[in-house]
Structure formats: structure tokens, C-alpha cells
Fold this sequence. Notes:
Elements: H1 2-13, E1 17-19, H2 20-25, H3 28-35, H4 60-69, E2 73-80, H5 85-97, E3 104-112, E4 115-123, H6 131-134, H7 145-161, E5 173-174, E6 185-188, E7 210-211, E8 215-220, E9 224-229, E10 231-236, E11 239-243, H8 249-259, E12 264-271, H9 275-281, H10 299-307, E13 312-315, E14 322-324, E15 329-336, E16 343-345, E17 348-349, E18 355-356, E19 359-372, E20 378-379, H11 392-405, E21 409-413, E22 421-426, H12 433-442, E23 450-455, H13 463-473, E24 480-487, E25 500-507, H14 525-532, H15 536-550
Parallel strand pairs: 1-2, 2-3, 4-20, 5-13, 22-23, 23-25
Antiparallel strand pairs: 3-4, 6-19, 7-10, 8-9, 8-12, 10-11, 11-19, 12-15, 13-14, 15-19, 16-19, 17-18, 21-22, 24-25
Helix pairs in contact: 1-4, 7-11, 9-10
Amino acid sequence: MSDEHNTRREVLTAGAAGTAFAAFAAAAYVQDAQKGAKPYAGAGMASSLQTVPQAPFDGMRDWIAALEAHGLLMRFDRIDQDAYQIPALFFKATDMYSMYGAPCMMFDEVKIDGEWIKGPVIINHQGHWNTDAIIWNLPVISGDHYGTYRGALDYMKNVLAENDGNVPELPPVEVSRDQAPVKEVVRNGDEIDITKYAFVKTNPADGGRYVNTGSHFMEDPELGVNFGTYRCQIKGPRKLGINPEPNQTGYKFIMAARERGETEMKYSIVLGQDPVIWMLSGTRLAPRGFAAKPRPADEIAMAGGLRGKPIDMVKSENTDIMIPAHAEMVIEGTLNLREESMEPEGPFGEMFGYLGPEKPKNFVMTIDTITHRKDPWILNAMTGMQRGMVTAPMDAAYSIRLKEMIPQFVEYTNPQDTMGIVVLSIDKTGPGQGLAAGKMIAQRNPIAKVVIVVDKDINIFDRTDVMFAVGSRWQPHPASEVIEKTFGLMTDPSQVEYAKTSKIVIDATKQVPGEGGKEVFPKTNRELMIEGAPDAFAQVQELFGDALSKWKRA
């Protein structure tokens, strides 16, 4: 097992480009990646993909190998993070290819505090449009990111529909230690120095280096089992600052332990998760809630159900908490629950793309044990710069619920590159439907500060198409409604009061006479083109498609 894992790592890192910026200058690599892999599905997949890992992926290494096979990985020998070259490189990539078009990146060595530390460090592993298809082994449509994403949406809607709107579940399977790669290396007590691993300070203004991709696996006698992703500031060789927000389930577990009079809490932080566990750890796909203290959903069983294969689990070293056997690393620690033990934590670059404030008091964990694979792979979140995880499952689940509430509902999306704005399309049949649909979302989704409602002919995933609708179909009065004060996302930098915000609903559908609109709304130039010259698009594709595809963007 050990040799197999090491061999895969050598395959992925061999032949990496020289320095980071020299490699990035060879932008043809990414241009080739943007052309995409050939469409594949089951037995009809391209031969170049037949030998690489396929879904379900047991660990992060298989997932990265699949990204590389699809042209979505850039590899680098080393990068100087003391000069903050990782965020500079990634900002450059998103400037060139957009947040949804930038590749995953792997850095074999990273300079941290004057020392070259062996990684690899990996960023943006679920940022690209196509990852929503690759994670479920669905067709990737070359040159059509929207079509690829919609294929993943349809797949997830079908999965949910076949399970009465719920995420399917498969209970996990316990495996022995010798079957768990995450147990290959075990360090206890003073053998531990978290600073010797390739965890980075992502932004110059961050409060320090962070472990920012860990799934915190907790247990509670009343609330059950939960895992979620919370940032951890490295404060010393065995010391982490922990930041669960008050609305998050992990915070409620911690508060429940405090209320019982406990002074400490032990739990495990899992890093280098398989792609489905990573997605579930940072999303609201699993139902939550604490009215009458119902138990949280069994997210490990949900991960197994979504994969169609149970998750292999192994017991933690110091507790009975079960953790994924194929993870890269597990940090087991003791959280001090005493008020007087809390310390300042942060600041940290947050998901809205702005620096979040320093927390004057936050929880502190003492690391008791670290287990990991040999040469563990370190995932770093480029928080506020990247799409953090595949989003089709959340969009699909939300769409099913919205369809039940909004008869005219067509599509919904929560774009990660314009955080705070959500867009939905409806098949409008009468006055008032646009504002009513938008208010339905504004009242339920804390992220939805600006809700834009468009007609079904608008591609909600295309920002230009959405802005076209706002500019040409929206009248600020009367097709808007402002909600003066309601709940919002706590990381919104525009908030004056914590977790409170005003919101606006923009009805950018064609206004009908009952709303003060025209009797007949004009058709777009493209509609008129399709009606008046229906064969023209096929003709120019045949005559000039090759020339267009070969043109190099200036």
C-alpha cells in the first residue's frame, strides 16, 4: 500500500515545471486545458482516461490524478510563499481564465519563513466548472462549460428525486489500521511540530499561517456526530486557534459541551479528504437544525450514498471518533472550553474576498496526536479567491425545494465569484411573479443579499447574459423591493450589525402590462437572427468554425 501511494505521488510530481512564474508563462498548458477533455461516459470514455482513477474517489490523490487526466492540473517544482507568489499566481490565473476556469495547482516545495518545506501544497482542486462532472464520472462536454455543469445539475436532481428529495445514504465501513493510509505515520506529544508541515500564510494581512481545509469531526451525547470546515490559526508547534462561527454546527457542539459544565473537548481534524467529504464539510447540503435538539444528518453515510460506495473509516488514536481512512492527515486535539483560555485569532481573508476582522477571543486547541500518510499532501483554501467546492449538489437540492414553492421556477444559482448575489430564472406567466419568487429566496437564504430574477431565455450561469437582462428588462421602479433588515451572512464586510443585512430583489424579467410593461416586448437581435436566418449558424460553423477555434486571443 505504501509503495503504491508513493508511486502515484512520483507520477504526479515528476517533470514539473521549473519556477512558478516561468511555468505559468507557458500559458498554452492552460489554454489546452480550457479546450477540455473529450466527452466521456462509461465504456465510451476517451482511451486517455481509461487508466486513471474514476469516481468514486477514495482519497485526494486519486482525485488529483483524475484532474490531471482532464487537463485541469498545473504542476510546479517550487514557489516562494514568503513573497506571496501562490496568491499572486492564482489571481493571475483567475484574471486570465475566470474563477470557474482556472486550473488546480500543485507546488512540490514551498518557501515558508525562509525554509523550503516539502509538500506538495494543492490549491483550487474543485474550482473549475468541469469538476462538477468529473466527481460523478459524468460527461465533460468539450468547449461547453455550461452544458457540462447542467449535466451535473440534472444528474443530482435525479439522484435526489429518486430518494424522495433526500440525499441517499450508505453506512460507512470500519477498516483496520493497516488498511488506513492515514495511519502510516503517528506522532504524539512533543514529537509534534505543526509548523514543519507546508501550511501557509495565504495573504500578507492574515494573522498567520493557517490550517484552513480541515473537517472537524465531533461527537456529542445528545446531538450525535458532525463534521464541518473551520479555519485554524497556527499559534505554535502544538497550538491552534479554532474559529467556528455561532451559526455553524461545530459551534453549537462546543456550546453544548460548555453548558454541560465540561472544561475541555477532544475531537479530530481531518485533512486531505476525498472530494465528496470535502464538499459536504463546507456546505449546507445536509439538513441541520437544533429545534428540540434533533440529531444532525449522518454526513458520512450521505457521502457514501452520493459516491455509491461506503466510506472506509478508522478509529482515532485518542478517542472513539471515526475518521476517513484514506485522508492525508488527522490532527487530534483537546479544545479548552474555559472562557479565560480564549485568545485573539485572525484576521483572515474571508469568502467575500475581503479581510475579516481579528477575533478578540477564540477557542484554542492543544494538539495531542498527528497521524498522516507518508509525505502528506496539503490542501490550502484560497478563501475569497476560488470556488471552494463543486456546487451542483447544492444548486440541485435548492432547486428542488424552490420548484415546490415557486410554480414558475426554472433554474437557480449562487455564483461564488459574486458572493452575495443569487440569480434565478422563471417561466413567467403573469404579473408579480418575479418579485414574489425573488422574495421567497431573500427570506430564506442568508447569502442572498441581491436577488436577481430573469426570464427562462437568460442563461443564469453567464454573467453577461444576466447583466443584459438587468440593463434591458428591469425598471428600478416598480420592479424592485428592498428588505430593510433581515438575517445575512456573518462574513459580509458591508454589515454594520453582525449577521444582519438589508436586501434587494430585482425583477429583471420582461415586465407585462399588469406591471406597467409594454403590451408586446421587443425580441432580441439574436432571436430575430434565429427566426430570419435559421441556417446561418450551422453554415458559419462549417465554413469558418476551424478558423475561429484556432484564433489566439490577443
